[in-house]
């Protein structure tokens, strides 16, 4: 019977961690789920949600990661994966193969997704654009009072 493990038990409830700014993108907020600590850096898992309307998007980039999935939990987002536009809606799961060039360029105000990446300290590198990117959908602005 296995009595030792290289990872720890982790249980993160909604009130345990808060959404904060200061992550990879300044127009998103991130909620750490404690997985990087529990796996000693093998995997990171966080919730990502829209904080501001899309203007420039993420830009073309790729990640140096062995594993990367996105689970859309609320709303929707439009990505370019290489030269393919992809609409990802609540309930959809995307596996981003290592090194795939992509660009998240549009999303709904309620967009939220779970991102799981290994290793936890993965790198993000800007890359040359393989194609043009459509414009984002403008968010409705509140009426002036």
UniProtKB/TrEMBL annotation:
<feature type="domain" description="AraC-type arabinose-binding/dimerisation">
    <location>
        <begin position="47"/>
        <end position="103"/>
    </location>
</feature>
<keyword id="KW-0238">DNA-binding</keyword>
<dbReference type="InterPro" id="IPR011051">
    <property type="entry name" value="RmlC_Cupin_sf"/>
</dbReference>
<dbReference type="InterPro" id="IPR014710">
    <property type="entry name" value="RmlC-like_jellyroll"/>
</dbReference>
<dbReference type="GO" id="GO:0003677">
    <property type="term" value="F:DNA binding"/>
</dbReference>
<dbReference type="GO" id="GO:0006355">
    <property type="term" value="P:regulation of DNA-templated transcription"/>
</dbReference>
<dbReference type="Pfam" id="PF02311">
    <property type="entry name" value="AraC_binding"/>
</dbReference>
<protein>
    <submittedName>
        <fullName>Cupin domain-containing protein</fullName>
    </submittedName>
</protein>
<dbReference type="InterPro" id="IPR003313">
    <property type="entry name" value="AraC-bd"/>
</dbReference>
